[in-house]
Amino acid sequence: MGRQRDQFWDYAEKLNDRFKCNYCGRDFPGGASRIKAHLAGVPGHDIVACNAVPQDVQEKAQATRKKREAQVTQGTNKKLKSVPNSTPKSKTKVEEEYRAEIILNDVVDRIIANVSSLATEHIDFDLSFKVELINLLETLFKIKFVLGDAQKRQSSDESMRIWLTNLRDEAYDADNVLDKFSYESFLQKVQIQNQMMDQVCNFSLCNLDKVKKIKPLLDKILNDVADSGLRMELANSIPKISLGMNIDPLLNDSEFVGRKQDIKKIVNLLISSSNQHVISVFPIVGMAGIGKTTLAELVYNNELIKKHFDVLAWVNVGKNFDVEGILRDILKSLGEEELDDLEYDEVRERCAEILGGGKYLLILDDVQNEDPKKWDTLKGNLLEFNSNTGNNIVITTRSDNVGQIMKIHPPHHLEKLSKDDCWSIMKKRTFIDGRIPLTLDLEVIGREIAKRCGGVPLAARILGGTMCFQFEKNKWLEIQNNKIWDLLEEDNSDMFPVLKLCLDLLPTPSLKRCFAYCAIFPKDYDMKKDEVIQCWMAEGFLLTKEANMETEDIGNMYFNILLATSFFQNARKDAYCNIISCKMHDLVHDFALSISKFETLILEEDSVDDGSSIQHLFARLDGKTTLGSSFSEVDLTKLRTLISKNFNFDIMLSNFKCLRVLKLFGDSIIELPDSIEQLIHLRLLHISYSKIEVLLPKSITKLYNLQTLRIEGFLHGLPEDLSNLINLRHIHIYWDCDYDIKTPKNMSMLTCLQTLLFFGVGSEDGYRITELGALKNLKGEIEIKNLEYVKDEEEAKSAKLKEKEIFKLGLYWSFDREEEDDMYDDEKVLEGLQPHPNLKSLTIYEYRGKKFPSWVGLSSLYHNLIEISLRSCRECEEVPTLGQLPCLRVLEIYGMGKVRCIGSEFYFYSDGSYRNTTTLLFPALRRLKLGWMVSLEEWKDAKELTTVDEVFFVFPCLEELTLRSCYKLRDLPESLHTCVSLQKLVVLDCPKLRSLPGVPSIIRWGIEDLPSGLQCIEYRLPSTSSIHPPSLQKLKLARCDYLLLDQIQYFIALKILWIQGFHEIGALPEWLGNLSSLQRLYIVNCQDLVHLPTEEAMRRLTQLKTLIIYCCPRFEERIKISHVPWVEINAELTQKDSKKFAFGKIINLMTTDAQALQLLLHGSPALNSLPNEIQPFSALEELKIQNFNGMEALPNWLGNLSCLQKLSLYYCKKLMYLPILHLTDLKHLHIARCPNLEKRCVEESRAEWLQMPHIRNIKINEKYIKGKDSEDSEDFDDSEYEEVEYDDSEYEESDDSEDDRDDYLQEDYIWGNDQVDDN
């Protein structure tokens, strides 16, 4: 029987998925239930009360709603299957049922596993106690067998829900008792391991008694349902799904189905010439899951949009319409970093700089604000930033009211998809990879199910993903005929029933628990895959009975299933194609929260009334509030997960004794108290404080159940007895430590360890590299440092890296080791460190062998290798053979100062193993960087080294080439000149290089290359399309031969051009106007530059949006560039607040402003003193000195810089003396990589220590020896300093000379994140 037409449609006109009131004339989304709300005068859910409805109609609507509410209340105990088709349940009822759902399979399975372990592993127990354990197992299995049916009946049977609630309380209490028993067992294992006690284990009588009390309590629970008729069944604990299932085809959340006309309409409107408002606002309005965000993404990524707008930004707004937060998110969307310390005015200034030049498009996704004042505040800011016409804002919202408040254009109401479109989405996801054959029967059933999606693409995606795990026709029929479809509203505005159906179809109950748990993360939260799986593991959701499966394997499988079914979406991958994070759709998050409402709380203020049932708490407080003392009076003893910002340890940890997961983050100082040892059940400890030091107490080594330790911040060090944590599986420590820091002693005892990001080798037993050998489960990524302590090949082999599935490996020798340390053979050590064949990324640093071992670049073994970085291998005389690695995409070689020629060894092995009629060399390489190859004179082409009949294709996919400080290199191989895929080229400090890639050979000839007897050659160029790489879009040329400038004209497809350090150029050439695609032009440090090309040439640059001329003191001309939207000329001389600049080789100093507040000095190895020219800089507040390796003492006149507050010294190897006693305002002293000075500053008997009593904060090599750095300037962040070690006699140490490191130009942003049009 179908639904009858609701009588209230007599008072409204039906408009697709909307209705128009016959009385007030307004239209709203929805169906009959919302008509009643509108007429009854009940606002909310995008509905406002009707102001023209007759009284009798209003009373009728009100009476109908009251009757419905009464029916909902009375129907609580009715079974789901008894609900008649003609009376669909309200959303309130459905959500109430979902909130009541209790799933206990995981905790019952966990208790069974623990009891089984006690009964079988502890032979010293009394026989009577073992009998009690066996009897307890019998009770537990009885509960397990009836649990499935009980959970199915809970939504329709109130008594069953009450029984499950009671069982839950007793089960979790039993879990804690048994876990405490296990903890005591682990304690005794550690004591035996440390030889602190005999092999005999003695357990607390108190704990034994508590274990004995479990069975009577569970027997009583079981007896309560003895007459309920529960069926006995056993759910599979692990789904029969391949761990290697390929879910990549299911990861596209933006199916382009049925929205072609919507995209075309919005794009045309946004770029229309009639769109001449300063800010035009375009609302996209529709119900949840209809595809508003997907449509906005398709518009945002449209090529016409990219070409039309200068700046594109995206902000997810959500419930909280915070203007300052939106402005910060705009900056983050544009690649800005380090925003946390900026004041609101500074945020506004940056927004004005970025948005003020050209036209911008801003997407505000999921706007819920209905307060016009907040919108007016945001709009006022944006108008202040940019008063030009043509700026656009697209908002997505569920609310018509929001659309009405913010609109300038009429809202675009997103219509539902057709039934065929829904089937198209479902079919694509269901029949992926031929897992299920598409039969005629299945298609008929599938199309019927697609109709039930109600035109909502999210429903089609989730249903399609769910059904790809249903292989049988009868399962499809069960879905088609499920009674839950009767719960749908007529307008399908409530998608919870569809989500409930799909959730029930998930393969295991534990998977449902994993999904519901994720409600603890806020909306739009980027859920890190490893973190989520480790939380599931800590909660005990991932039990496995398969001998060959790790707990993490189950977690990976569950995560992939939730992605495949679209319960998770927006999957993000790393450079190695590993999925690293995802998000949840807002509607799906609402649903997850509804089914875990009794157990999960997201708190946004320091107040909670009753915490007795809460198991998972996310305290998301603002920066001014901490999780405070009010919690000391709240019962949180059942809390198992606590995620808190700005946690206050004045709260007694005894309130949280059942915690399994503890994550703390924020900006307050974090020093864990010794009392953390009370958290004996803790499995996961995550501390995330990015800007302060984290201190771990020794008592943390008593958390014997701990599985995961994640620290993000400045870690003071790891406790020495970390090896006591025998259950530890993952150590995620993100620290920038010095090379002489060792990892804790006896790491080999952590035999469960799978993740260890850092290992510092020591010279003593317990610290040697042999400790890694016992860690047979180690996988993922690791950096091994201090390799100079490894004596020989045999000791290196003891690490057994070849047996460990490590995909990212870093091998580091210390940069500052003394010459006598070279007694060890680096070549033999590296040979012994051969990694696993699954290797994808390899970094080798400060290796001092003359050649690389044979395994480096071995294509037959390392066919998965994607990235290689070889740095400061200064003794190497030849590059390794890498040309035949089939997947190599990124290759960086820096600091091989003794390599004179790149020859055949670079491309292929000498044994002829490459030989074929046609050979691809570097077949997948995308990025190639060579730097500081100071002896490199010749780079041969592969074709020069082969016979005539062999055909080679070299670098067929190369997109980015960087050459830096190759002072002697004259020519590039022919394969680079014929490379047609090149998009980005950077050439710095290559003074002898005669040509750029792609320049015709006839142009590359110099006078000495002409055939004998010829003085000159006249020639006519062929068409430009045949003489240059048409794909080259970005070019940076700095401090090279002046003749290279003229070669730029052959790259007419350029979109970004950076010219730097050509001091002799007085005017830019006329051919610049031929670069018709140019969008951004940067002219830097051209001292004699006065003129641009003629006005006619500049006018031909019709696509030019940005022109920046920087550090060109003679340039004056402006009239010819008035048509360019964003122009800056020598802007560093006019900055209002901090006047800053950087220079190398101490040049052009007198042209700068002596009133600068910040000064950055980049020196060189030959400099042994600071230049006297900086004495007049009396206003300096911050001074940073780097790479003065010949300087032994700072000059005495430094004491005259009376305003100096911060002094930073980096890479000054001989520096010993600091005349800073008279710098009374100095608050911060930072020293790094200054070995002589470091010793004199930490030994209190030395004179330098006596110079420092007035300095509050002293940091040496990332460690504070005094105070905290609470007032660091953002612009002088320590992460800026960098050195690459080379031979002082041959070249400079500094990574960057002259003004390469200039903060103001933000070079990395321009080259890494700059938006350029693709057309």
UniProtKB/TrEMBL annotation:
Annotated segments matching region Disordered: 59-91, 1269-1319
SUPFAM superfamilies, alphabetized: L domain-like, P-loop containing nucleoside triphosphate hydrolases, RNI-like
Keyword Protein biosynthesis: no
Coiled coil: 775-804
A Pfam cross-reference name: WHD_DRP
Record domain BED-type: where: 3-57
Keyword vocabulary terms for this entry: ATP-binding, Coiled coil, Leucine-rich repeat, Metal-binding, Nucleotide-binding, Plant defense, Repeat, Zinc, Zinc-finger
Top-level division of the source organism's lineage: Eukaryota
InterPro entries assigned to the protein according to its UniProt record, in alphabetical order: Apaf_helical, LRR_dom_sf, LRR_R13L1-DRL21, NB-ARC, P-loop_NTPase, Rx_N, WH-like_DNA-bd_sf, WHD_DRP
Keyword flag Transmembrane helix: no
Biased composition (Polar residues): 71-89
Feature: compositional bias, Acidic residues: 1271-1306
Name this protein carries in UniProt: BED-type domain-containing protein
Organism: Quercus lobata (Valley oak)
